[in-house]
Amino acid sequence: MDTLNSELVEPDEIPAQERVPLSGEALDAAIRAMESPDFLSKLTGRIMQQAKKMGFHSPFVDSMDLPGGKSAADLADDIVEKALAGNYGWDRQKFPDFTNFCCSRARSILSNWLNRMKPFTTTSPILEKDPESGDLLPNALTKAVAAEDIYSTLRFKEGGAMGDRFLEDFALSLADGSVEQGIVMAVFDDRECGSRAYCRGKLGLSEADYDAGVKRLLRKLPIFAKEWRVKNNIGSDDWKEAQ
Amino acid sequence: MNTPDPEQELTRLERLASILREDGADVDAMDSARLAQYLKDNKVDMAGPQKRFNAILKKAKARRQLELARERRIQAGGKARQVLAAGSTAVEELRERVRGMIERIRQHHPEQALFYAREYESATPEDMQILEEDLMLLEMDHPEDGKRDKQDAG
Fold it and tell me: Is the dihedral of CA B58, B62, B68, B72 positive or negative?
């Protein structure tokens, strides 16, 4: 499984030989931001929320670790360190605020990771240009090892098609007309239904009913996934076959 | 950060994960205690990352202080040339003075001192003069350290 690793040179990072560490007013501004109360905690919280919004928080396991076991706080540190070292071009016109700039980098790293993982089921290796050397290298996905967690498998296997099948089966396993089934069906049918407010409005549910439904879903999902995995013979072999 | 990226469309399962985990919390509006609790509830351990962050910040500040000291040194001008003109004994005395200053800094700011010690190791006589002026300005920025030294000695 590919790791969300900020040691990896992201495609939009500045090549090593052209990097200039922050200095002068830019360094002053960064230091002022870093000295503001709870800078790291707030940045971590915002990265975590962004990751949740992008579906990084598994619905099967209550852990907010990012792929590879890195936490949102680790990623925040990596980004700050790289920003100071000049790995990213800080456009102060576009992002006058250092925290917002760091958040934009987090979003980019998370997006890049998803882009690397999405074409997992390709049958031939994808060649990517290495931003450092300019060489064409096989996509890191072709070196992916067996996934430990069902969420990773379902997310990326067959370009997400396996996840769709899982979700269909899960919806059918829920009581007809229940709030939980309504939520799952709404998510399945409506691409806008990736936000709580929209989904609740679409289903016409009160906050209390919606929250209760969400809690029940979070309880039921891991149990159903375990059974589904066995029934459909989904194991590490499925992950390996795409290598 | 909050606007959805049109190119990053979530799969159905990711959409479900997203709405099941969405908490609607406004991190920026939280006070320190609530923020700490929020991160704890989300199982994010801040101890290690906070320590690393403090070191990153310290290093950045040391770098900026050095930059500022260099800027002021340029304005102060020609002392280096005078020392060089005075010969090798003057240069040795200069090296000793700089060593002493780094030692004083080490007592209160060990990591910062390490940074200057590295500069010291590779400094030419001209660099040494610049370093002395930088450190003098740093001492002026932290007069309380000097006072503490005198109190400790008394």
Answer: positive
- Which of A215, A226, A149, A159 shows the shortest CA–CA distance to A183? A215
Say if B2 falls within a structural domain. Answer: no
The verdict on B34 and B98 lying in the same domain is: no
Q: State how far residue A173 is from chain B, nearest Cα, in angstroms.
A: 16
Domain count, chain B: 2
3-class secondary structure for B102-131? HHHHHHHCHHHHHHHHHHHHCCCHHHHHHH
In a mutational test of the A interface, the residue from B5, B16, B50, B52 whose CB has the highest number of chain A CBs within 10 Å is B16
Provide the ipTM. 0.75
pTM over 0.80: no
Instruction: Name the residue with tokens 């922050």.
Output: A22
Asked if A164's CB is within 8 angstroms of B11's CB, the reply is yes
A243-to-A68, A82, A116, A187 alpha-carbon distances in Å: 18, 32, 14, 31
Read off the pLDDT of residues B7-46 as tens digits, 9 standing for 90 and up.
457 889 989 999 998 888 899 999 999 999 999 999 899 9
Same domain, A156 and A192: yes
pLDDT in tens, A105-130: 999 999 888 877 765 543 344 455 56
**Closest Cα in chain B, distance from residue A137 (Å):** 24
Q: Which two tokens stand for residue B36?
A: 């700490």
Contact A219, A225 (CB under 8 A): no
Residue A6 covered by a domain: no
Element (H, E) at A99: helix A98-117
A45-59, B66-80, B84-98, B100-114: range with lowest mean pLDDT: B66-80
Domain stops at, among A140, A159, A184:
A140
Both tokens assigned to B34: 């609530």
**Is B139 in the same domain as B68?**
yes
- B18 and A54: CB-CB below 8 Å? yes
Q: Is residue A3 part of a domain?
A: no
Q: What is the mean pLDDT of residues A33-48?
A: 96
